[in-house]
Design goal:
Helices cover 32% and strands 16% of the residues. By secondary structure, the chain is an alpha/beta fold. Bound molecules: S-adenosyl-L-homocysteine (SAH) and iron/sulfur cluster. Residues 139, 141-143, 146, 148-149, 199-200, 233, 253 line the site of iron/sulfur cluster (SF4).
Length: 396
């Protein structure tokens, strides 16, 4: 492979983003930025002089208290409450089904506009509770080890559908704060967000950014930017923007130490190869003022799991504040790979660890309900690629 981008590589397709305002019916306030909320209120007839104050009040009801009914917004005049109720709604994605794993992991299937469905996973741990959020229905990229990548249908989620997943989970966990009580981040049930569900978040940049800004807003859900991790397969031009405009932690689906292998596993590598990606990553901590970048590395038997791979990985990440997250491959029906043995994974982890990097092995969570990394795919999306297509795309 040459270092130059390969313009012929089929990297992305056109992705439909539905407008926030459907042609008919009331506007959903969930997902509007503060500025957009203010504009929407003014457009509906709220006097400009009052708009800023009303925006702040409504914002707090929606994002701090979890209120969905305008009638409950008791610091607004009764007339104004009904004025709002006639023009707006406060809606989050609807839960179609919920499965709870033996280990406490919860997997939700939620329905969004157009009848599409996406999965959201809540992972309770001793010191945190992490919500794994989806950014697209399906994914235009076709990483050969990922179940989501085999789903044909793709649509970007709106900002409201993304932050709405967080609100839906807080509903289910019963975690809207009681008056006068606002628990600290570390004692919250939902204390962290990872953008590691379905989809490539950096192919839906604006909506992901707006949703995360809402989640961070101190007068609302109020999660620190250090408790939000965005995982990308390596959309290089958007990495600098992520640092500047979101400022959250970054994880990279790295998965291979040579372009030839990474081209097969993470085909976006044909567009932005390892060297180009690493250049972008070197800048990230400075611009975002964040600590370490997480290198995600899926362990595939006989593909990327040798000692040489581990040593090459160390060479590549030299100089980047990093941690390496080893992910035992999660199998799915028709997957063209196998998980590396536990001994192999431990030996690999040990080489990384000996060099001074944290190298945790990610324990698969919620395997019994197919909630683990890369297993997400809406069962209802029937259009799926055949085994042959999957194998061809993997270059097998
Ligand atoms: N599209 C983004 C985020 C979603 S995937 C990305 O690719 O980074 C979240 C993580 O799960 C990624 O590191 C992805 O490579 C990994 N993953 C995908 N399929 C997997 C599988 N079958 N087993 C283990 N990890 C997988
Ligand atoms: Fe998309 Fe990420 Fe899966 Fe690749 S690993 S197909 S980028 S969701």
């Amino acid at each position: 492979m040459s270092d130059a981008p390969n313009p012929a590589a089929p990297i992305t397709q056109d992705v439909l983003t539905i407008p926030r305002k459907l042609p008919e019916g009331p506007v959903n306030l969930v997902g509007l930025t503060r500025a957009q909320l203010r504009d929407a209120l003014i457009e509906a007839g709220t006097p400009e002089k009052q708009a800023k104050m009303r925006t702040g009040q409504i914002w707090q009801w929606i994002y701090q208290k979890g209120v969905r009914d305008f009638a409950e917004m008791t610091n607004l005049a009764k007339d104004y409450r009904s004025f709002l109720a006639e023009r707006f709604v406060i809606e989050v994605p609807e839960v179609v089904s919920k499965q709870v794993s033996e280990d406490g992991t919860r997997k939700y299937l939620v329905r969004i506009a157009g009848g599409h469905e996406v999965e959201v996973v809540y992972i309770p741990e001793e010191d945190r509770g992490t919500l794994c959020v989806s950014s697209q229905v399906g994914c235009t990229l076709t990483c050969s080890f990922c179940h989501t990548g085999t789903q044909k249908l793709v649509r970007n989620l709106t900002a409201g559908e993304i932050v709405g997943q967080v609100m839906m989970a807080r509903d289910d966990l019963g975690e809207w704060p009681k008056p006068g009580r606002n628990p600290k981040d570390e004692t919250r049930l939902l204390s962290n967000i990872v953008l590691m569900g379905m989809g490539e978040p950096l192919y839906n940049f604006e909506n992901v950014r707006d949703a995360m800004k809402i989640a961070m807003d101190p007068e609302g859900i109020s999660l620190s930017r250090r408790r939000i991790t965005l995982s990308t397969s390596g959309v290089v031009p958007e990495i600098a923007r992520t640092a500047e405009e979101i400022g959250c932690l970054l994880a990279i689906s790295f998965h291979a130490t040579e372009d030839e292998t990474r081209d097969k596993l993470v085909p976006i590598n044909k567009r932005w190869n390892i060297e180009t990606l690493l250049d972008a990553l070197r800048e990230y901590p400075k611009v975002s003022n964040s600590e370490r970048i997480t290198f995600e590395y899926v362990m595939l038997k006989g593909v990327n799991d040798t000692d040489d791979d581990a040593y090459r990985l160390l060479e590549l990440i030299k100089g980047i504040p990093a941690k390496v997250n080893l992910i035992p491959f999660n199998e799915w029906p028709g997957a063209p790979y196998e998980r590396s043995s536990n001994n192999r994974i431990r030996a690999f982890a040990n080489i990384i660890y000996q060099a001074g990097y944290a190298a945790p092995i990610r324990t698969p969570r919620g395997e019994d309900i197919l909630a683990a990394c890369g297993q997400l795919k809406s069962a209802t999306e029937r259009a799926r690629k055949s085994r042959k297509e999957i194998a061809q795309e993997a270059g097998l």
